[in-house]
Backbone:
């Protein structure tokens, strides 16, 4: 019998050589006459150990990593096909510290299965939620969501069931489910890993949404920076159609749900839901004023549920395992789990799915092991480019929506970016404005003009020109942007700026020569 | 990748005709044109406008809204370098300074028929940065030597392997 070897095809794993490693292992097995079957998977999210190779043995799937092509012959010599000892060995992956300390719900299958094998998906519990949903009334599905406490994982944390109920109660000849897979926030990659590692889970979640609200068509809007995710998602949709999971009669239910994957085109604002809908319709991605809300008048003017990848991917297990089981994870009004993403200057970066309520420190130090550079942590940006910069003394903040709001920060999509003490926070604040100026949709003045003025004002402050006066200008500017912007692009850009100023004032008051010399 | 066939009106019309029936056909059409030609020629504007029954101004306005769509052909090698926060934390700006000093290369300046370097914000590889998408393939843990090599049409796979060997 041949030995099964699992090697990720996830883009992050490929970025550090997984393709060459897979080829070397196949060649080496061939030349040694060893019978192996190589299965390409998603990534477990233990990204600092990528390429991480797993071998199926009697004691479980033994992990080796990071494996380089030059290590392969040595691994064979060490008997890795039977779990042999080696400097790169980590034991059975299921027993690795990084894995056992997590609450893997949404990411339970990612890295374990062949992403485009529907048989694998079913064998690991896939489609149980959809089968349940077929036997339920739409209103009961919505009730389950409400009981689960699920809130939108795209950033705003809005209760998912409210959107679904609104769309369910709307009457229209056509309704849509739209998945927001624009994942533009720096420091985030959970949507990408899910689409590359378990695309059927997203398909299942969207089909359930379709059945729940009476929508027969869905779109997944995937950013163009994710060509691998787009390919895997498109392949999986094709497989699901052939197998009757999607199409005119979902799993033989007699009810239709069809799905298309669409590519974005490099605009951060198209992650904002109304801009995304404009873009899907084929227009400039300009933000719409609300009301009307998308649940009533969304895509092509029809009732539309628009949710983030992780919100939709959480739904199948809520139905399959019960809403209560999901709600048991978490704290206060943040129920369930969030796949956190640890990146930037960190020793052990990757994806960690945890119940809400753990602290930033547990993630950054416990999982992340501190900075990659070995220097002290100085700042952490949580929640993407519109999220706050936090100083090291706020690392004990619990990871829940309200606790973050209370310190003037936000969890957003769960991205955590670590900076060491070489960071210049005035530069980071300037970048926040620069990014907003570049990515603004241009519809409203506070954002379009304010961001440009913000860059100029910060430049004057750093150059030492009329500092106090310009701090006052900055303050006004931030107030106007916060209060008068149409969407959170302009409305939240002050968050990284003001948090940098609040926690790291010394970086804005350096003697000007230093900056001038740069 | 970017096989950069020269602009061909007939091929463009075929692409538009094939996709025009899609709901919201604009972006799929633009992507297909750029995949074919490496850019979206201004000559495509009237073709698209007529097919989608919109004004030329509207078609042009939509194309120019999106960073992805180029108005001029790209080089044979396209390097999209991430300059967002997580890659900043891993020194992407210093890396670009070094590449500028040593090789005279900068992002977002007109290239030639060999090379196009563009800024992007996040490639979803934030734990293994600095990162770039090179001819559609993701490369992590870039350093100046590897980035310069990639800009000189060096092997993507070698750069990925070297990234994996970086501790
Ligand atoms: C500037 C901006 C960018 C956004 N980018 C994204 C994104 O990339 N992905 C996402 O899911 N939501 C993004 N959002 C949030 C969406 O507008 C919306 O809240 C979300 O898609 C709703 O889904 P959820 O309720 O499942 O979170 C963004 C919002 C703003 C203002
Ligand atoms: S805040 Fe900025 S991005 Fe949002 S609608 Fe206004 S101009 Fe557009
Ligand atoms: S910030 Fe560079 S890949 Fe995410």
Residues:
């Amino acid at each position: 019998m041949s030995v099964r070897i699992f090697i990720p095809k996830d883009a992050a794993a490929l970025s550090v050589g997984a393709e060459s490693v897979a080829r070397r292992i196949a060649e080496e097995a061939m030349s040694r006459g060893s019978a192996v079957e190589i299965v390409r998977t998603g990534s477990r999210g233990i990204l600092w150990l990528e390429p991480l190779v797993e071998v199926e043995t009697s004691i479980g799937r033994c992990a080796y990593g990071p494996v380089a092509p030059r290590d392969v012959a040595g691994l064979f010599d060490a008997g890795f096909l039977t779990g042999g000892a080696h400097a790169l060995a980590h034991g059975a992956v299921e027993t690795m510290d990084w894995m056992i300390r997590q609450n893997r719900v949404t990411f339970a299958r990612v890295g374990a299965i062949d992403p485009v094998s529907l048989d694998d998906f079913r064998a690991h519990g896939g489609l149980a939620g959809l089968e349940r949903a077929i036997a339920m009334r739409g209103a009961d599905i919505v009730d389950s969501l409400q009981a689960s406490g699920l809130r939108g994982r795209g950033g705003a944390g809005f209760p998912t069931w409210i959107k679904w109920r609104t769309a369910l109660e709307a009457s229209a000849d056509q309704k849509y489910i739209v998945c927001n897979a624009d994942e533009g926030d720096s420091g985030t990659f959970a949507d990408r890993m899910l689409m590359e590692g378990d695309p059927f889970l997203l398909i299942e979640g969207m089909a359930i949404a379709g059945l729940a609200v009476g929508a027969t068509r869905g779109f997944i809007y995937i950013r163009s920076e994710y060509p691998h995710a787009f390919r895997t998602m498109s392949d999986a949709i094709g497989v699901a159609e052939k197998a009757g999971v999607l199409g005119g009669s979902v799993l033989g239910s007699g009810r239709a749900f069809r799905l298309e994957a669409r590519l974005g085109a490099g605009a951060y604002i198209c992650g904002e839901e109304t801009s995304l809908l404009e873009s899907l319709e084929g227009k400039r991605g300009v933000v719409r004023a609300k009301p009307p809300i998308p649940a009533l008048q969304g895509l092509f003017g029809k009732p539309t549920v628009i949710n983030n990848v992780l919100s939709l991917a959480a739904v199948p297990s809520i139905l399959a395992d019960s809403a209560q089981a999901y709600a048991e994870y978490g704290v206060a009004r943040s129920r369930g789990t969030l796949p956190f993403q640890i990146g930037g200057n960190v020793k052990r970066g990757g994806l960690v799915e945890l119940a809400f309520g753990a602290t930033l420190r547990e993630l950054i130090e416990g999982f992340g092991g501190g900075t990659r550079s070995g220097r002290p942590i100085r700042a952490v940006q949580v929640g993407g480019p519109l999220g706050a910069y936090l100083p090291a003394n706020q690392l004990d903040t619990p990871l829940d929506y309200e606790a973050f709001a209370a310190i003037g920060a936000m969890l957003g999509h769960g991205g955590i970016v670590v900076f060491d003490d070489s960071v210049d926070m005035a530069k980071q604040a300037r970048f926040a404005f620069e990014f907003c100026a570049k990515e603004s949709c241009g519809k409203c003045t506070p954002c379009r003009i304010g961001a440009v003025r913000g860059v100029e004002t910060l430049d004057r402050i750093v150059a030492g020109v009329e500092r106090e006066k310009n701090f006052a200008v900055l303050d006004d500017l931030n107030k106007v942007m916060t209060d008068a912007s149409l969407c959170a692009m302009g409305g939240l850009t002050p968050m990284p700026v003001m948090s940098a100023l609040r926690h790291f004032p010394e970086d804005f008051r350096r003697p000007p020569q230093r900056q001038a010399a740069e | 990748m970017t096989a950069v066939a020269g602009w061909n009106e007939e091929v463009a019309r075929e692409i538009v005709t094939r996709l025009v029936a899609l709901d919201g056909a604009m972006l799929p059409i633009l992507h297909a044109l750029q995949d074919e030609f490496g850019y979206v020629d201004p000559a495509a504007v009237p073709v698209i406008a007529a097919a989608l029954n919109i004004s030329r101004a509207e078609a042009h306005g939509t194309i120019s809204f999106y960073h992805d769509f180029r108005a001029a052909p790209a080089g044979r090698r396209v390097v999209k370098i991430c300059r967002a926060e997580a890659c900043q934390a891993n020194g992407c700006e210093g890396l670009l300074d070094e590449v500028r000093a040593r090789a005279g290369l900068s992002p977002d300046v007109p290239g030639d028929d060999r090379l196009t370097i563009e800024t992007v914000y996040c490639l979803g590889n934030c734990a293994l940065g600095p990162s770039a998408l090179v001819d559609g393939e993701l490369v992590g843990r870039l350093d100046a030597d590897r980035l310069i090599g990639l800009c000189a049409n060096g092997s993507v796979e070698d750069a990925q392997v070297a990234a994996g060997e970086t501790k």
The radius of gyration of chain A is 24 Å. Chain A touches chain B through 72 residues (CB under 8 Å). The longest strand of chain A covers residues 337-344. Residues A 186; B 82, 84-87, 122-126, 129, 131 surround FE2/S2 (inorganic) cluster (ligand 3) (CB under 6 Å).
